[in-house]
Structures are given as structure tokens and as C-alpha cells.
Amino acid sequence: MPWRKAWVDPSSYPSDGNLSEEEEEQLRSVLRKRAYEVWISEIMLQQTRVAVVIGYWERWMERWPTVDALAAAAEDDVRSAWQGLGYYSRATRIHEAAKLVCNDPVLRGLLPATAEELEKKVPGVGRYTAGAISAIVFGRAAAMVDGNVLRVLSRQLGILGDVKTDKKVIDTLWAAADALVKAVAWGNDERREEGEPPLSDRPGRWGQALMELGSTVCTPKPNCSACPVTDTCRAYAEGHALATEAGLVGSSKKQLPAAPDIEELCGLCEYFEDVVELDDEEDGTVTLADNPPAKPKPVKDTKQSKLSSFFFTPTTRSSKGGDEEVTPATKPSLEAMEVIASHARKFPVRKPKKKVREEETVVCAIRRESLLEPLEYEYIIHRRPEKGLLAGMWELPSHVLPESNDSTPKSRKSAAISYASGLVRGNDLKYVGKLGSVPWLFSHLKLTMHVYLFEIVGYQQGNWDGKDARWADTEKINLENMGTGMKKCWELVRRSRDSDYNSES
Ligand code: SF4
């Protein structure tokens, strides 16, 4: 991944501890660039696959190689560079944040180094991104916990909870990640009880390794036989015990970590009996039965987030100072491994997915003959509001149909005519025909866009040359910032010939 680079070690700069002004500026400029690169990659990676992000990130860095260049960019150019990545508000927030960071007299274009300040001062930077920038760029012992890490830790700690919505579970896993990254950052340092761990590349490498473990091995359907950390994994140990009970594991009985009875202590976990495995679920996660009994009330004064409640199997240190090699236990048979992995799949639980909302819109392409080129057409486009779905993007005028079960071709056509007529009131509007329907899926919404073509004939009234609505020819619309679904609607319009549709439909 092009954004993964060697850690910038501040101590590798002139090392007597007294940087000259020039050296300080030099270090500052390297850190500015590194922080900017990691920040952009992390924001792009939210909700988007790595393979897709690589090209976007490279083009972005070529166009705006520094945070100052981004801050000086035109808003529309930034949105346009984001086209196809989805969640367009991310582009707007990055742009706002770049301007803010560059104009701040203290930051002067350099992102803050601590996770707390990053989250507080930089718009669009949440808990995870703040931890990632702080650890990867600035070498601080900050936890970075994404969905993959939540899954790995819920299995390692044996917490059978909902890592998406149960705040206590989420906080506990963050606390675990925090304790782990601090331990990793201290390493064998004797001063581990004193203040903050020293800066190093270890927190960044550790965080990325945990995420990668979750995305390659400890996936929703885990491959426990390829896992490097079975020894500390509570879910693995429990699965192993089940396989032993079933007679699938011979003499090499594995000891369950001596954890206290968590159920009685804190009530974080669901009951296994309430967890129903869904084999047909795409990602192999499990869900709760429809009406599980309430969880037991936590015992008064329990310390749910205290990591001493959990048990990590410590690595044995040899007297020579290094870690002793652990003799690998006999690998369980394939059958036993299946029992183990199937037990691990129960972690974490999650509530059944909410049904995605469905919506229908009529998209009205309203054209007129171009005033400059008589054989060409121009179309009305307008800009979406600055907040909400596809904020600030351009589109052909669209209207959401009221929710109903009786949406028919006839009712949709009549809604399109009434919307388009209202829009260009006072003009002679001709209905040309229906061009087709474009289904489009957002994470929370299933949208169907029905595309209609209209034409204004004769003399035109009204001013359509404003900031948020205007006439535009085909070439200009091709270059305009539009969501990918709307682009598909525009393709229908652009490719249509009058012979293609029936004005009766
Ligand atoms: S042993 Fe299995 S469940 Fe545990 S961390 Fe490894 S892959 Fe995940």
C-alpha cells in the first residue's frame, strides 16, 4: 500500500537533543507530509476497499501533494476527485479540516500528535482515525480499533457481546486495545510504570498487524489453524475444550485460561444458548435469537473494564533476556479445528440487520435547444443541499415519491409531469418519454430512480443560471460532480435518441 512507509523517527534528526530552527522546520515538514498521507488514506479507507483506494490515493497525492495544496484547492475540484468513493461528506470535511489546520497559528499545517487532540481539533477525525494517525505517524501508544480489531479482541478475550451497539462491550475492547498497545510500546523497558511509553514505530506496526490479522486470518469465518496467537485466545481454548469433550482431541488437552467467572462478575456477555448461527449470512457472523432473555444485572461495584478481569497468557521470558520459544502443541485434527473455528465464529454477536429503507424518485431531464449550437441540447441541473446524502453534488432535478404500495408506471409518470411542470412554471413543457429506471444501493437506502425526458419549446421564461441551478450542455454535465447513481441516469439521457422511447410510457 503506497501510504505505508517507514516511521519518521524524530530522534534520528540531529541527535544532541537541540534542534536548530532549520532542523526543526525540516522535521516538521517531513511530519506534515507523513501525517497528511496517513490521514487521507485512513479517511478514504473508511467504508471503501483497499484495492479501490490505492488509485484514488495516488491520484490525490499527485494533485495535492501537501496539506497546504489541498487547503488552497477549489471545493468543486475536491468533490470531483472523490467521485466514485461514496460518502461525499468525507471529502468536504477533509477539505474543511485542511483549511483549519493550515490556518491555525499553532498547528501551521501539522496535525496534532495525540489521539485526544486529533479527535478534538480535526473535523471528520474520529476515535479510530485519531489513534491510527497518532500511532503510525507520531509513534505514540494509541489504540486503533476498527471492526476487524473488535472481532479479534472479542475472540481473544472471549467476550460474547455486540461490538457494534453495546457501549460497555465496545469500551471494554477499547480498554483492552489500549492496555495492549501500551505494553507493546514499553517492550522490555524497565521504566514501564513511569508516565508515557517512549515514541517508536511499535504502536503503529502493532495496530496495523492486529487489523491485518482480523482481515486475513481472524475473519468472520476464522482460519484458526493459521493463527499465530491461538495460545492467548479464549474462544480458541473454549472451542478446543469442546472438541476434547467430543473426543476429537487426544491426549493434548488444552487448559482453559483461568479466567474468573465473567458472567457473574459483569454481565458483559450474552448466553451461548441465545446465539443462533446463521449459515447463510454472507460474513458468517452470528446473531441473537429474536427474544433473548434479559442479561443478568451486573453485580454492584463490579469493575467491568478492568483488564485484570481478563486473562492473558504471559509469554515466558528466558533467563537470557529473549522470549523463549514455545513448543508447538500437537495441531488438532481437521475435524477438531472445525469445532474450534465454529465456536470462534460465535464471537462477536450482533443484532439482526435493520431492513434497508426503500425509496423511489422521479428524475426529470428537462432540455432545450442550445442557444449557441442549434443541434445540441442543454439540460437543467441543480445542486443538492450542503448537508445530507450526496451533499453539494449536482443532479438532474429529482423528486422523492411518497411512500406507498401502489406505485405504478402511470402514477410515476404523472408525478414526473407534475414535478417538472412546477419547476419550469410559465414555460411550454413537452413530455418526451420515459428513458428507464436505475436501481441504486446506499448502505441505508435502496433507491430506484425513474428517469423521464421533457423539453421546453418556444420562448423560455425564468432564470436558470444561478449558483445552485443552471442550464448545462452535455460536455459540461459530463465533467460535473455527480453521484455514481445519478451519473447512470445521465448516461440514459445522454445516449438516448428520440426514436428510443415511447411518449406513451
Ligand atoms: S485463534 Fe482463531 S479466533 Fe482466536 S484470534 Fe486466532 S483466528 Fe481468531
TrEMBL record:
<protein>
    <recommendedName>
        <fullName>Adenine DNA glycosylase</fullName>
        <ecNumber>3.2.2.31</ecNumber>
    </recommendedName>
</protein>
<dbReference type="GO" id="GO:0046872">
    <property type="term" value="F:metal ion binding"/>
</dbReference>
<comment type="similarity">
    <text>Belongs to the Nth/MutY family.</text>
</comment>
<keyword id="KW-0326">Glycosidase</keyword>
<dbReference type="Pfam" id="PF00730">
    <property type="entry name" value="HhH-GPD"/>
</dbReference>
<dbReference type="GO" id="GO:0034039">
    <property type="term" value="F:8-oxo-7,8-dihydroguanine DNA N-glycosylase activity"/>
</dbReference>
<dbReference type="GO" id="GO:0000701">
    <property type="term" value="F:purine-specific mismatch base pair DNA N-glycosylase activity"/>
</dbReference>
<keyword id="KW-0378">Hydrolase</keyword>
<dbReference type="GO" id="GO:0032357">
    <property type="term" value="F:oxidized purine DNA binding"/>
</dbReference>
<keyword id="KW-0479">Metal-binding</keyword>
<dbReference type="InterPro" id="IPR044298">
    <property type="entry name" value="MIG/MutY"/>
</dbReference>
<dbReference type="InterPro" id="IPR003265">
    <property type="entry name" value="HhH-GPD_domain"/>
</dbReference>
<dbReference type="InterPro" id="IPR015797">
    <property type="entry name" value="NUDIX_hydrolase-like_dom_sf"/>
</dbReference>
<keyword id="KW-0408">Iron</keyword>
<dbReference type="GO" id="GO:0006298">
    <property type="term" value="P:mismatch repair"/>
</dbReference>
<dbReference type="Pfam" id="PF14815">
    <property type="entry name" value="NUDIX_4"/>
</dbReference>
<comment type="function">
    <text>Adenine glycosylase active on G-A mispairs.</text>
</comment>
<dbReference type="InterPro" id="IPR003651">
    <property type="entry name" value="Endonuclease3_FeS-loop_motif"/>
</dbReference>
<dbReference type="Pfam" id="PF00633">
    <property type="entry name" value="HHH"/>
</dbReference>
<dbReference type="GO" id="GO:0051539">
    <property type="term" value="F:4 iron, 4 sulfur cluster binding"/>
</dbReference>
<keyword id="KW-0227">DNA damage</keyword>
<dbReference type="GO" id="GO:0005634">
    <property type="term" value="C:nucleus"/>
</dbReference>
<keyword id="KW-0234">DNA repair</keyword>
<dbReference type="GO" id="GO:0035485">
    <property type="term" value="F:adenine/guanine mispair binding"/>
</dbReference>
<feature type="region of interest" description="Disordered">
    <location>
        <begin position="283"/>
        <end position="303"/>
    </location>
</feature>
<feature type="domain" description="HhH-GPD">
    <location>
        <begin position="44"/>
        <end position="216"/>
    </location>
</feature>
<dbReference type="InterPro" id="IPR023170">
    <property type="entry name" value="HhH_base_excis_C"/>
</dbReference>
<dbReference type="InterPro" id="IPR011257">
    <property type="entry name" value="DNA_glycosylase"/>
</dbReference>
<dbReference type="GO" id="GO:0006285">
    <property type="term" value="P:base-excision repair, AP site formation"/>
</dbReference>
<dbReference type="InterPro" id="IPR000445">
    <property type="entry name" value="HhH_motif"/>
</dbReference>
<dbReference type="InterPro" id="IPR029119">
    <property type="entry name" value="MutY_C"/>
</dbReference>
<keyword id="KW-0411">Iron-sulfur</keyword>
<keyword id="KW-0004">4Fe-4S</keyword>
<feature type="region of interest" description="Disordered">
    <location>
        <begin position="1"/>
        <end position="20"/>
    </location>
</feature>
